[in-house]
Write a structure and sequence with these properties.
Helices cover 49% and strands 13% of the residues. By secondary structure, the chain is an alpha/beta fold. Strand 11 and strand 12 form a beta hairpin.
Length: 500
Amino acid sequence: MVASKYAKRDLMQSEFTERANAVAVHGLGLSVDVYSPDLLHLVHSLRDAGLQPGYLEVFKATTSAMQWVRRHLPSMKLPYHGEGLWVTQPDFPRSSSGTQGVAEACAQILALGSAWLNHECATKQMVGYSFGTYLPPLYTELSARMTAENLAVLQGQVDEQARRHETDPALVLLEMPPLTYFGCGSLAIPVFFRAVTDRVACGLVLDIGHLWTVYRYTGAWLRQTLEAFASEFLDAFPMERVIEIHVAGLAEFTAQGIAQHMVDAEVLPYWIDAHGAPIPEVLFDLLAQVLAHPRLTCMKGVALEVDTKPVDKIVAEFRRFCDRFEAMVNRVEQVGAAQSHRQSGVNQGPETRQSLTMDEQASLSNQYQAYVEFVTTRHSLPENLSLLGGSLDDLNRYREIYLPHEVLHWGGELHDMFPRTCSLLAAAHLPLERVVPFWFSRPRPEEEDYDFFLLKIDRFVEFVTQDCPSAAVTVREEAEEMRTAYRAANEPTESAEVRV
């Protein structure tokens, strides 16, 4: 059994090495949204400042938008940042995420000519419940096995499309997610990712800001310095699988948005991942430590995540980033490329995968049900699961502040989205805060590709129809107006090029 485990691990590493060798070095780049900020305006502003990113990792939009971007940036490397592919979930292959979502991702990879598909090891939908921002997976052995199995399915679909179109297949990358005040499970986070990579030939994305949140919300900051924590974490993490590194802002969340705070010597701030916020110097220092790790042998790119950030701030941060790290990143990429090619050519035998049993899938689904109840209410976790360090006070910050704001305000203010309906609710003395318990009152089957804005519209219509039937006609009318306008706004045409 032990010999079989090591043989599987060696086979996966061999397959990964072959795939990684086919990925070109990308250098220093930016992870961007098509619309926020305007992508071509950003590119032109960088060029005007004498800056040329080696690549742009483009976040999911529409396939037509991706085709438009490729036409207007014909020589740019454009890897793909996916969304809505819930590979941590037991129902992934059969779900809309694993069918419609994967098909759309494959079409967008083809449109961009992407070398990789990056996706967070996290989800916004689990066992019929939906969230506005990512929740990390359950960090357990069973969850790691499920994630690896689903990644193999996803990579197979990407490979099949590449064969049909006679193109090079994109390499699937799994990104270590942030902790927004808490994490749950029974495995240390680097051990979880080692359990995944032992079973599947995926690459990894290591996000520096996400690493800082692990330091903060597992309570490690109370016991050791950031440098000591990072040294231990990186030694246990599968650094040899890291294809890309991300760096983004961190900031404290407030009900009005985000507010930056400095690190205090006694108490660290409640920073969370915030792409629109400035990148604190502590993350660049942490990046330098990561780039010096001896097992970082397959890295192909380092990107600042800048969606939602003002263009002038992006230009300034990218210049600072290039000045400090360009030579270091080039050296790591070139040394890694040489080592990888010396390791290539290993004979790969036929792969055998051992799927989770039906009982194991059911057990994991039950654990995710308990996970949802734990993070949205005060239900307790099963005995074999617990918070990964941190404190209940941190979790309560998520339950009582972050989660209600997410439902009521994330993706659009309900008052702005449904002005006439909200007036009727106010006249009926129905506070909008009642939407939150309604949202998590029961599971709702996933029926289409995840889009939080459209999901929020649907859920609010359900809430109003149930709790204020006299406003049902009004809420449906306003909902249809928004759906129509939203879909039109997300299908750019040649006459609307300046927007893209």
